[in-house]
Amino acid sequence: MSSTTPILEARGLTRSFGAVRALDGADFDVHAGEVVALIGDNGAGKSTMVKALSGNLALDSGTILFNGAEVDLSSPSVASHMGIETVFQDLALAPHLTPPQNMYLGREIPAPGFLGKLGFLDNKTMRARSKVAFDELGATVRSYSSPVGSMSGGQRQAIAIARAVVWAKGVVFLDEPTAALGVVQTKAVLETIRKVRDKGVGVVFISHSMPHVIEVSDRVQVLRLGRRVATFQAKDTSVEELVGAMTGALDAGAKS
Amino acid sequence: MSVSRHSHDHPVTQLDGANDALDSTPRRKQIMKTITKLVPLIAASALALTACSGGDGDSGSDDSASGGAQKLTFIQGVAGDEFYVTMQCGIEAQAEEVGAEVNTQGPAKFDPTLQKPIVDSVVASQPDAILIAPTDVSAMQAPLKAAADQDIEVVLVDTTVEDPSFAASQISSDNEGGGAAAFEAIQTANPDGGKILVMSTDPGISTVDARVKGFEEAAAADSTFEYLGVQYSHNDTATAAQLITAALAKDPDIIGVFATNTFSAAGTATGVRQADKQDQVTVVGFDAGPDQVGQLKDGTVQALIAQDPYQIGVDGVDQAMAALTGGEVTPKIQTGFHIITAENVDGEGAQYLYKSSC
Amino acid sequence: MSNDSISAKNATADAAGVAADASPTGEPRSEAAVSPDASLLTSGSEGGIGGFFRRIVKVQSFQILLVLLAIFVVFSALAPDTFPTWSNMRLVIQNVSILAVLGIGMTYVIITSGIDLSIGSVLVFSGVIAAKVMQGMGGDGWGTAIVGILVSIVCGVLWGIFNGLLIAKAKVPPLIVTLGTLSGALGLAQVITGGVDIREVPAVLASNIGYGNIPGTTIPTISVIALVLLLILGVVLHKTKFGLYTYAVGSNEESARRVGVKVDRHLIFVYALSGLMAGMAGILSLAQYSTTAIAGQSTTSLAVIAAVVIGGTSLFGGVGTIFGTIVGLFIPAILQNGFVITGVQPFWQQVAIGAVLIVAVYIDQRRRAAASRATKTGKRSLAHLFRR
User: Which of A237, B90, C38, C99 is the 20 to 30 Å CA partner of C245?
Assistant: First the structure.
């Protein structure tokens, strides 16, 4: 698996916010059909990295390679075009729109013929396809015509993940997808992650929960102070080892 | 001092506007004030007006047009303004005298876009006659013509429209006479003559221009006075003060200034004080609302030229009734002015001050 | 440059999300979303709350319509001979028409959680430029009038684009930008005219559009123009991608941006639309009043904003309908007309409008509170109007 070219690779990413170096020459890589966990203590640069790799943040320096070719991820739509999708911690749903509207926001299906050229939308198709997508992931969406803002945290999480997964052809980033979920839901999310990986998509899973990380990942990459300090094979590592690498207590020696 | 003055000046801008049919003076200050209130709610003024209006609130709904008393509706240029309140007092008193009913309406600002819907609604209520101070010579032409076409007698009070041929009568102040009266006030205070100046607002306002013209003509007739011309304050106190200090630097012996509205008067007085000439210069203001009277009593101005809105109201009712009952109608009436000074303000002049309630 | 605002937004969003999700009710419902078994227990309440939210959203403009009908019935009973007549209603409709044109643009703007205070001044400015051009051309015919119409519209659009650029690109808060253009547009109109109204308006404009009727009817032309604009832009808002993006930007600007909606460009379009409507209203006002009325229109922006809010459009963005705005415009108009006809002092009309406005915003707040169990908008305040 690791012998092929990574679908997405970052080399020497740097980004400062004022005096703070959020990323300080960080590297990262993920292959198609692989779950990579990205872990690190608060402030290690995980969220900054995700933003940079999803086109939501400009970098000071560094290279991003997609399928081995250098790319300029200057905007979210560039990333979407490559099939890179992200579920952010704050879900990034529009609370006043319905689940299908959120699912298709920015990618609406125009109505057939002349009306479509005028900007009219094919709501029926969008709703039907959303339903299929939600069902596929086992996300039970109660109402397709209610605003998502009226739904529970779990439902919105499911909608946000479903939206990302549906469009992700290359890589999907999940930023703390289980942080606020209950036991049953967390299981469902981890199951979803495996399903998505089995479709051949690269999954980047950011979490503070080490058991989850070990349970679902293939590889674990550790960020500390804006740098990748270690990479582990999930099946060969332990919670203690990961925590040690995150905090710097363990002398960081990459095993790959 | 200038701070407290500003808060008092709010209704006065409306007053000055109210008197100027062609007025288009900037009202930005008011807009800015309004914006700070998200809700267009002027509760205080509402209280003042309802307190004043007394019992005529229900008179309008009586459907007695054909049989009983004649129904008159008075549409003010701006509601709650002392000039129009005084006119309303005259109208109500005279209506009671002749046995007519009066209903008074008015927009919250001197603004044709606010007055037109009121006129339309009044016409729908089918009064026998409308007494109105139009807020714009063009904008109010069509709606008032429409009223006249529905056999409603229209009497124009204070201000007018482009083509008033449909109106039964027009009653207004003789603004040129007002300018002459202002000169007379300066003349009385300075019998020996000297240099005099006008502090106006903006050019192009017909009523104000008429006042200036009357002042100029009266000044030209007396060779002991040297007329220095008009300065335009653009309705801004600070500008008026700057202009007057500059004028005093050029001509240190100015003895009298006619300030055509409240802001001009306040600024003129400030400039005169800055130049330490308050004992030498007589400032004459226009109108006699509470703010102007305040300026008179605190010595900002030495005399006020008061219009006679009460008489305009009385004449308006008389003309409307004459038109309704087939009496003799005078198509055009001009009412006079009264000079108010510190000496007569509490005596015989008191009756000519504008009222905030009847 | 925009990172600070992004991270700030994320921070508040996180806090809101955590607070909501940590609530006792959050967890079981969350499980219901993915567990078919558990969903049986909670499906009733889920559907109930979703349905409740949906019902209230739909009901707000309906409630307001009921208020309007109630007002109509009361005045009809008080003045049966004069109030509920076509000749009276015709004038009410005519007087609402210009405000309705402005209300269209304002509805779009407020749905994006913005505000446009400048429309009254832009209306005056556009009317002044159009009047100047038509005065320069001379003539009373349609040729002059059509040039005037186009000039007025172009002026409005330019002011709108100017507002939009400052708001979307320079990140100046909409309240401040449009407060500035409110003052600036009016000031320029005064500079251009020396503060003296222009009263030369081509006769065809005044007699056909201003107070004319559709030939053979007693329906005011100006109202038909307003109605056509309302229908077109109502359909655009509720049925097209442009409309959907308007809601999306107002609902969660950041999420719209992340999925590739060109938020800045959309905001510029929306403010340009508001300017377009103000330019349109400028020429209509010129036709109706035969004067540029420079000193007038000072309360127009606020009257339109009040109507939009009364009609159920949320100042917090993401919610609103054109239909509600129309109902919101008729409430003050009908109240004023009825009060004048029944001889009530006009100040009471303002008191009544103020009360309706406050009640409408209160309902909006309650609705958001009820719907915001898990959304960050529930924690927002109107302070967003002051920042970008």
Answer: C99
**Helix, strand, coil % (nearest 5) of chain B?**
50, 15, 35
Supply the CATH number for residue C300's domain: 1.10.3470
Mean pLDDT, range C77-106, rounded to an integer: 94
Identify from A105, A156, A163, A187 which residue to disrupt to test chain C contact, counting C C-beta atoms within 10 A and taking the largest count: A105
CA pair distance C44, C24, nearest whole angstrom: 18
- ipTM exceeding cut-off 0.90 for this assembly: no
- Find which of C85, C289, C301, C329 to mutate to test the B interface (most B CBs within 10 Å of its CB): C289
Mind listing the pLDDT tens digit for each residue in C246-285?
999 999 998 898 888 899 999 999 999 999 999 999 999 9
Whether residue C177 contacts residue C113, with contact meaning beta carbons closer than 8 Å, is answered with: no
A202 pairs with which residues across the strands?
A171
The predicted-structure confidence for B194-247, as pLDDT tens digits, reads as follows 999 999 987 767 788 899 999 999 999 999 999 999 998 877 888 899 999 999
Q: Which residue of C has its CA nearest to A105?
A: C259
Burial (CB count within 10 angstroms: exposed 0-12, middle 13-18, buried 19+), residue B357: middle
Cβ–Cβ of B139/C82 closer than 8 Å? no
B38 inside 8 A of chain C by CB: yes
Residue the block writes with tokens 């070719």? A69
Q: Are residues A220 and A157 in the same domain?
A: no
Number of domains in chain A: 2
Structure tokens, C298:
């000072």
| Of the residues A162, A182, A197, the one at which a domain ends | A162
Q: In chain B, where do the E strands start and end?
A: 71-75, 101-105, 129-132, 153-157, 169-173, 194-200, 225-232, 254-259, 282-286, 303-306, 332-335, 338-341
Q: Domain range spanning residue A8? A: 1-83+168-256
pTM for the model: 0.76
Report strand pairing: A35-40 vs A219-224: parallel
Å between C43 CA and nearest CA of chain B = 42
Answer yes or no: do A174 and A65 share one domain: yes
A180 & A155 share domain: no
Domain end (from A162, A183, A208) = A162
The number of folded domains in chain C is 1
Do A142 and A183 belong to one domain?
no
Contact by Cβ (8 Å): C123, C277: no
